[in-house]
Design brief:
heterodimer; A: about 525 residues; mainly alpha; Cytochrome C Oxidase, Chain A; B: about 190 residues; Four Helix Bundle (Hemerythrin (Met), subunit A); 5 helices
Chain lengths: ~525, ~190
């Protein structure tokens, strides 16, 4: 091999002593955050920002529901309609999806024993692109824009920002998926990857198959130079399928990984039937694939009914597997455990709501009376109550609760001093009650078909539930920020084994491990042998 | 023969096949985007079959030549992969350069085709036609940029038989862009 192929890094390394004469100025904390490719910094910023956005989006959704419950007296009709249409976008793209992506940015390298994400600059681009898109979307929404808005420029700004949000999320998930596939240490096959990381691999695959289809619709409508009416009545309905089953479950796939990891860690027991459990995650992911169910006609097919009913099974089986693991070990009740179990329970309720929608279409096209519901475009109400809207709210609630469970479970890793255990346990009941109320109000309206006063009462329940969940998310954000700022008593990680299970970050801290860095040991051996032979 | 001092620690190589896997995932997303656009085009055309492209004609010369150029590009880029895996740098540069030439010819033919077809944006077919073909144009341009960057890095000595991943990744993305063009060719240009 020629000397000209010596890698430039080696030359730089060898002349490092010469550079010590002019030490580089240390970057400020702001510069460190803005210019960082460190997965911990990127992950923390994304988790924190998406917690704020999801809580704020919950408040907007609650406001719309309280407006409908008050007989349309709370907000102006145009404002209610605009908020009603855009709240699911904000909840999904500004809240739920980036929240699980932020967790993945932070936790996946730790679980795999990797010092970094694959393509760290792409991950940073994902974070800042998403944040810029989320801010643009918020500005457009508040300035009479986005879908249902009256200002054309602001409406187009909201439309474009949704595209930016999707592109940013996709860039980030490619980084996470590549980390899982190519940053595993020797000996860790895919079938041994920790559940959360594995679930993110499945999640990424489903996102890559789903979100570009939404982006395509946004692109076409942007090219058509739409008016405000086109955006509200044509462009938004063209992407509304992503808020319905089966596509809505793309946000919830990581919950299965979280509950399985948490159960193993808090019980100190290894999950039985590990590969089967991974198969459950794959099954849930496959059933979440939804671009084929965009039209109303496709939602009245046997395939749609079957997927709506069957998708509950992997979630139920994952919960059963987690409970079985917990039974075998010494149970330690933590905030992370309670929250992640609560998340799966809320998710199961969402699947029940989905199954009811599916079964109502059996037979001559209408098995039994059931109101689906709709976001916006239903007059001045802002939201049309029904089972489908309730199911969407339940899935979002499950994701928020599950993400909070992950935050508190891995809290001692996420922030320097750890998160107080009491906070997780204290917030868990609030999150569960809020999440249930947020979604079930709509589901009951859709099934029981109550009179007008009953509908208003149930929508009030939804609104109040959303506010409780939002307050829980804000509280979790406050605890998270306080921990990130180093406030509070330090947590000894070694004394909290239940908080460290399922991660291999120690592998990157040991000198004798970190020196074994070559990914081509056989090639190295061959090169060294041929060099000796030549000598 | 030991030209490298024994005390000099070899720098760590990049993670195994990281770029290749990343490219695979990104290409999957790009493919879904393009296929979704083609699906929307077909759905719109099916709904307006009696008026679709009645005012404009799409010639087949350019689309067929584009397909041929892209397939040739696939052969050239795969030649570059073969060559870099054997440290045949000259052949690798030639393969990458010819691939870029094929790509440039495709882009040129696409702009010529747009001029020839002369679809307006206010026509029914206009937005979807330009969305589908424009996206394909952008994908091929991105594939060319990828090939160019990997070619420059190969010139800098970063890729060799020891680490051919960059060239392989660029080739993979090129092949995906060819497959996507063939879908567009069939759906838009042939099945008019």
């Amino acid at each position: 091999m020629a000397m000209t192929e010596t890698r430039p890094e080696a030359a730089t390394h060898s002349s490092g002593a010469d550079q010590s004469a002019s030490p580089r100025t240390q970057p400020t904390p702001v510069e460190q955050v803005l210019g960082s490719g460190d997965h911990k910094i990127i992950g923390r910023v994304l988790i924190g920002a998406s917690l704020v956005f999801v809580a704020s989006s919950l408040l907007v959704a609650s406001l719309v529901n309280l407006h409908a419950a008050s007989g349309n007296d709370l907000l102006e009709a145009t404002v209610a309609n605009r908020f009603g249409i855009n709240s699911p976008i904000a909840l999904l793209l500004c809240g739920a999806l980036p929240l699980v992506l932020g967790l993945a940015f932070y936790l996946v390298p730790l679980q795999l024993g990797s010092p970094a994400l694959a393509f760290p600059r792409a991950a940073a681009l994902s974070l800042w692109g998403w944040l810029f898109g989320a801010v643009m979307f918020t500005v457009a929404l508040l300035a009479k824009g986005s879908y249902g808005g009256s200002s054309l420029k602001m409406s187009l700004l909201g439309h474009v920002s949704v595209g930016l949000l999707i592109v940013s999320l996709l860039v980030g998930v490619v980084s996470v998926m590549t980390t899982v596939v190519s940053h595993r240490p020797a000996g860790m096959t895919i079938s041994r990857v920790p559940f959360f990381s594995f679930s993110m691999l499945v999640t990424g695959a489903v996102w890559l198959a789903t979100l570009p289809v939404v982006l395509a619709s946004i692109t076409v409508w942007q090219i058509r130079h739409p008016g405000v009416g086109d955006l509200e009545l044509s462009a938004f309905p063209a992407i509304e399928w992503v808020f319905h089953q089966p596509a809505i479950y793309i946000a919830a796939i990581p919950l299965l990984g979280i509950i399985l990891d948490v159960a193993g860690a808090v019980s100190g027991q290894r999950q039985r039937l590990y590969t089967t459990s991974q198969g459950l995650i794959i099954a849930f992911g496959a059933l979440s694939f939804g671009p084929w169910a965009q039209s109303f006609e496709s939602r009245e097919t046997l395939l749609w009914v079957a997927s709506a009913v069957i998708i509950a099974l992997p979630a139920l089986a994952a919960l059963g597997g987690a409970v079985e693991t917990l039974r075998r070990g010494k149970l330690v009740v933590t905030g992370g455990l309670v929250l992640s179990v609560s998340a799966i329970l809320v998710l199961l309720l969402a699947t029940v709501a989905g199954a009811l929608q599916g079964l109502s279409t059996v037979g001559s096209g209408q098995g039994f009376d059931l109101v689906q519901g709709a976001f916006g475009s239903s007059g001045s109400e802002g939201v049309g109550p029904g089972v489908a809207t309730g199911q969407f709210y339940l899935v979002i609630a499950a994701v928020v609760i599950g993400a909070l469970g992950a935050v508190f479970h891995w809290g001692s890793r996420l922030v320097p001093v750890g998160l107080p255990k009491g906070a997780g346990l204290g917030l868990a009941p609030l999150a569960l009650v809020g999440g249930l109320a947020f979604g079930l109000g709509h589901v009951i309206v859709g099934i029981a078909l109550p009179d007008e006063s009953g509908v208003e009462a149930l929508l009030s329940v939804t609104g109040i539930g959303g506010i409780i969940l939002a307050v829980t998310a804000y509280a979790a954000f406050a605890v998270f920020v306080a921990g990130a700022a180093g406030k509070g008593a330090p947590v000894d990680n070694d004394a909290a084994p239940e908080s460290t299970g399922g991660t291999l970050e120690w592998a990157t801290q040991l000198a004798d491990v970190s020196t074994v860095e070559s990914e081509y040991p056989v090639q190295d051996l061959r090169d060294s042998t041929s060099t000796e032979g030549a000598n | 023969m030991a030209l490298v001092p024994a005390t000099l620690t070899a720098p760590p190589l990049p993670r195994r096949r990281q770029l290749l896997f990343g490219t695979t995932f990104a290409a999957a997303g790009v493919a879904m985007f393009q296929l979704a656009l083609v699906g929307m085009y077909l759905a719109e055309r099916a709904g307006h079959r009696n008026v679709w492209l009645t005012e404009n004609a799409i010639p087949l010369t350019q689309p067929n030549m584009q397909l041929g150029s892209l397939v040739l590009g696939s052969i050239f880029v795969q030649w570059a992969v073969w060559a870099i895996a054997r440290n045949e740098r000259g052949q690798a540069y030639l393969g990458l350069g010819l691939t870029l030439l094929m790509g440039a010819s495709v882009l040129n033919q696409t702009t010529f085709l747009w001029t020839t077809v002369a679809l307006r944006m206010d026509q029914l077919e206009g937005p979807l036609f330009y969305a589908v073909t424009g996206t394909n144009f952008a994908i091929i341009a991105a594939a060319m940029l990828f090939v160019l960057l990997m070619g420059i890095r190969t010139l800098g000595g970063q890729f060799s038989s020891r680490l051919p991943d960059g060239v392989s990744a660029a080739a993979l993305f090129w092949h995906v862009s060819v497959v996507l063009y063939s879908v567009v060719w069939l759906a838009v240009y042939i099945m008019k």
